[in-house]
Write a structure and sequence with these properties.
eight-stranded parallel β-sheet; globular
Length: about 475
């Protein structure tokens, strides 16, 4: 991984202002990128853009390749097709996913009737050949079966026109995203994508590649993913994703994973993979279990997997989530491939941790927090007065003298030796936990719903970031 010092912002696409109830690839995204570039920040990290399923989580999706139609800018599409668009803007501080999908689908269906294939469409079909037909078949059948899980489908024949519509949606998504990514790249900003290690059971990949997962004869998961009980959770975390059949995957050189990473490399400049430890050791839970307490550790594919990936994919840049209580072999695996790890400063502000942070390796990405954490302002609001004063004094003694503790932590984070430092947009704005993106272990509202409202003033936030980028030598020439 590059040794250049950089700074950036974690900003989900869905959290832009947007004009139809959700952030998308429209004008607000371009304006935001332009303003980010003016700060000399050079990283924009996003959350997965795949079609969200249960609970609207971008980490439980119907595909790890396809894009979600909710991020398509209808205004841009209609302008391209020279169609009239007279929808009244829909704003607010929360995303109503159901309403957004219904609204955008109606416009997409109409646009499809006026769409004429061209050379760019044919080029897209070629670049997406490894996954497109599998996905459009899956999603068309799913819709035909009232969105039931694939193990419950009754109707198995879908019209060619529906398949063509789904291809059209993916084409529009791809073209708009690549335009936006190019705009960011042209301004010197690298886009960090995000993929979960596990796939959702109700996904095109599991449906079409059942032999690559540990499933029962009826297609249900024999074993599911999660993590055992720990300091943070007495019940552990039961994620419910099916477990890979790593032995079966090894027989074809992990082709599904290679295709997945290769596609994400097409879409992003750098890929962050969560729960990296599962490549070393992973927790499996009986498929019928209602808790993560009962399970067992299994040895992962380790170097055999990564050797295969780097042999098949050139210039693959990965950031890996290596947080938590890990055995030494996990870190050895990370270092075998010079992978950039992570550190969350919100968890490391005690006196002895401040000393350890000063010695942090350069090949690491530091955050104040991520989408799974409280906002810094929300976290500081819950500190005892004694603890608040202690951290404030310690950071001030280190040269981070700001009126608010969340500002001190942001300054401290960018000051560290880590080559990359990323701040969630909420931690640049000083927003409380009303702006939190997700609370692990909970499903549904208000998770994933937070967004900027119309005319949100980010002037102070961007100025604060610009000051930190310059002060801590994170300007990239």
């Amino acid at each position: 991984m590059t040794q250049t010092r950089r700074a950036g912002v974690l900003m989900p696409v869905s959290s832009f202002e947007g004009t139809l109830g959700i952030g998308d690839f429209g004008s607000s995204a371009y304006t935001w990128i332009q303003n980010l570039a003016k700060t000399n920040a050079t990283i924009w990290q996003i959350l997965p853009l795949n079609p969200v399923g249960y609970g609207n989580s971008p980490y439980q999706t119907y595909s790890s390749f396809a894009g979600d139609e909710i991020y398509i800018s209808i205004e841009k599409l209609y302008a391209t097709l020279q169609l009239e668009f007279d929808q009244e803007p829909v704003f607010g501080k929360r995303v109503n996913f159901g309403a957004v999908r219904t609204l955008k689908t109606a416009y997409l269906r109409n646009a499809f009737q006026h769409f004429k294939k061209d050379a760019s469409y044919d080029a897209f079909l070629e670049v997406a050949v490894t996954w497109l037909d599998e996905y459009v078949t899956f999603i068309a059948l799913k819709k035909l079966n009232d969105n039931a899980s694939w193990t419950e489908w009754k109707v198995m024949k879908v019209s060619e026109s529906e398949l063509e519509y789904e291809r059209f949606v993916q084409y529009v998504f791809y073209m708009q995203w690549m335009d936006l990514k190019k705009y960011a790249n042209d301004l010197g900003i690298r886009v960090v994508g995000d993929i979960p290690i596990y796939l959702g059971h109700d996904s095109a990949e599991v449906y079409h590649h059942r032999d690559q997962f540990l499933l029962n004869r009826d297609g249900t998961p024999a074993w599911v993913a999660g993590v055992p009980p720990d300091y943070f959770s007495t019940e552990g975390q039961l994620w419910g994703n099916p477990i890979y059949d790593w032995k079966a995957m090894a027989h074809n050189d992990y082709a599904l994973w290679a295709d997945r990473l290769r596609w994400n490399q097409e879409m992003f400049d750098v890929i962050r993979i969560d729960h990296f430890r599962a490549f070393d050791t992973y927790w499996i839970i009986p498929g019928e279990s209602e808790t993560a307490r009962i399970g067992e550790w299994k040895i992962g594919p380790r170097n055999h997997f990564f050797d295969a990936m780097y042999r098949q994919i050139e210039n693959l840049e990965l950031v890996v989530e290596d947080l938590g209580d890990l055995r030494p072999e996990v870190l050895e695996l990370r270092d075998d491939y010079d992978l950039m790890g992570m550190k969350i400063i919100q968890f490391n502000l005690n006196p002895h941790e401040l000393e350890a942070n000063a010695l942090v390796d350069s090949n690491i990405l530091v955050y104040t927090g991520t989408h799974d954490n409280q906002t810094m302002a929300g976290w500081t609001d819950e500190l005892t007065i004694k603890k608040y004063k202690e951290i404030t004094k310690n950071l001030k003694d280190l040269g981070h003298d700001y009126p608010s503790l969340w500002q001190q932590v942001a300054s401290y984070t960018l000051s560290l030796n880590a080559n990359w430092a990323i701040l969630p947009i909420q931690d640049l704005m000083g927003l409380d936990n009303e702006a939190r993106i997700n609370e692990p272990g909970t499903i549904g509202s208000p998770n994933w719903e937070w967004k900027l409202d119309l005319n949100t003033d980010l002037t102070d936030a961007f100025q604060f970031l610009a000051t930190l980028v310059t002060a801590f030598d994170r300007v990239v020439d």
